[in-house]
């Protein structure tokens, strides 16, 4: 199977969490699955921007990114976090290759606005270099930072990692995409929803149940299943372990 695993940035600096991710990715590689590990880095990016005295602002779940913050975002995602993941995987015996969307033009993006508002150097993936990605996947787990190449300028664009993962899953026609975050699934009134579709998402967003980073995550999952990925789940590390063992867990997102 082609599996896209997106891991969020909330626990990506926690050694125990990383070992857990490495173990489950190792299991998938041993079973001969092709795995793309797309990662975020929200928490550490905000930490670095704080140190640099740059204000953090989100517009409906997407980070406003000017040229100065993009430098820091790229440093953190394509440098520090990407290499930390590759090291951890390799230490667990996984053959891993760290890339960003810039390398080999794996991800080409086009600039977007959010709710009609300019959010700076932020894009959405419009093309994936599937040929290159597939050839890398035949021997390695590809650890992918979502920083992408701007279609017109060739320069870097910040892409929300959930969106980038969804695009990869769509272009690869993945059998499975899992958005591994720090929550067990989409929560409503204290319970994890087993399933969510676009109509329910719109309603829960409207009444303020789904907010922040969960908004682009569900948007991305919906897009993935509409555009060619087979199954999408939102869950945490435990849920992911269950799903890859063939059990249901977390929230399945259906078009
Ligand atoms: N209804 C909801 N159910 C669950 N989580 C929700 C809900 N509404 C908002 N959230 C928030 O969404 C967050 C997950 O999105 P967030 O962007 O923070 O993480 P991530 O995407 O895993 O990490 P990164 O953005 O670094 O890749 C949760 O930690 C939670 O605070
Ligand atoms: Mg997020």
CATH superfamily heading: Acetylglutamate kinase-like
Helix % is 25-40%
Just name the CATH architecture: 3-Layer(aba) Sandwich
The total domain count is 1
Descriptive overview:
This protein has 255 residues and is α/β, with parallel strands linked by helices. It is 40% helix and 27% strand. The protein is built from eight helices and 16 strands. The strands form four sheets. The chain has an eight-stranded mixed beta sheet with strand order 5-8-2-1-11-15-16-14, sandwiched between helices. The longest helix is centred in the N-terminal third of the chain and has 25 residues, at 67-91. The protein is globular. The two termini are 21 Å apart. The chain binds adenosine-5'-triphosphate and magnesium ion. Residues 8-10, 40-42, 161-162, 181-183, 186-187, 209-214, 217 line the site of adenosine-5'-triphosphate. Residues 8, 40, 42, 162, 213, 217 line the site of magnesium ion.
Structure at a glance:
By secondary structure, this protein is an alpha/beta fold. Helix content is 40%, strand content 27%.
Chart the SSEs and their pairings.
Blueprint (H helix, E strand, L loop, with lengths): L1 E6 L7 H16 L3 E6 L2 H10 L6 E2 L2 E2 L3 H25 L4 E5 L6 E8 L2 E12 L1 H8 L3 E5 L2 E3 L5 E2 L3 H12 L3 E5 L6 E2 L2 E2 L2 E2 L1 H9 L7 H13 L4 E5 L1 H8 L6 E3 L2
